[in-house]
Automatic annotation (TrEMBL):
The lineage of its organism: Bacteria, Bacillati, Actinomycetota, Actinomycetes, Kitasatosporales. The chain crosses the membrane at residues 56-75, 96-114, 126-150, 162-180, 186-204, 216-238, 250-273. The keyword Transmembrane helix applies. This is YndJ-like protein. InterPro entries: YndJ-like. It comes from the Bacteria.
Amino acid sequence: MTVLVNLIVALGMLYAVPAGLRLIDPAGLGTAARLWPWAAVPGALAPWLPRGSAATVLAAVYAGAALALLGAAAARLRRHPGGRSGGSRLPGPSEVAVLTALASPSVAGTALVAERAGYRLFGFDLDILALTVPHFHFAGFTAALVAGLVCRSAATGHRARWAAYSVPAGTLLVLAGYFVDDWAELLGAVVLTGGMWTVALVTWRELRPAARDRVTGALLAASAVVLVATMLLALWWAAGEATGIVHPTLTWMAATHGLGNALGFALCSLLAWRRLGDGRAPSPRPSSALA
């Protein structure tokens, strides 16, 4: 499991985050995306080293960059009309999703530092901390980002708006479930699954048919189909943890749910949205509208 998880983590750090930053705001976050490899390479190397000082330092480099993204999310929120005026106007659903995406790597980076130092942060087992790293790159950063992109580009809004709210909500509930109990984590899994299945539905019914070329359409279709299976596995695992019914092991989940989400959903989605943003396939609103 360790080798597979490390490879998934590397994909999240080296590709998913910088590609996602360019989709969020090519101008405002373009510099961060270009500089990201300077932090992502040490971060991706850290899990391959034995736990100790060297691995912890490399992880801390990545965590520092991830915390900088959290700062960018805070600055973005302050620039929101409600933040500037001190009023009560809240960010819209796509913006909530983007803010969640920008904040998620900081959770992953913090968990990575603790795990590489051999420190059971908040009492969590080191294996759980290790799995938190890929979880918040894909179920956190990429899932929230794609939900925001779908929300801005979908022709019919109510499903996509619900997805853009429920994916961040589900992610936060899963995180809260770590500190509460398995039933709270199951609730988070239900909300997150509902949001991701809605993303899949809108992608399949609205965005896939609008693709002008077969490659983009195939990437969108693959991302939608994979989500149905991988999130069903997530529900099964969370239900098993809460109720005691037979459910997959963490190793099996990494090889199915984790790998499927990383390659089938995240990679396919990001490649498709890059093509949409580059103008090779139609989008009712371009992905750069998230800026």
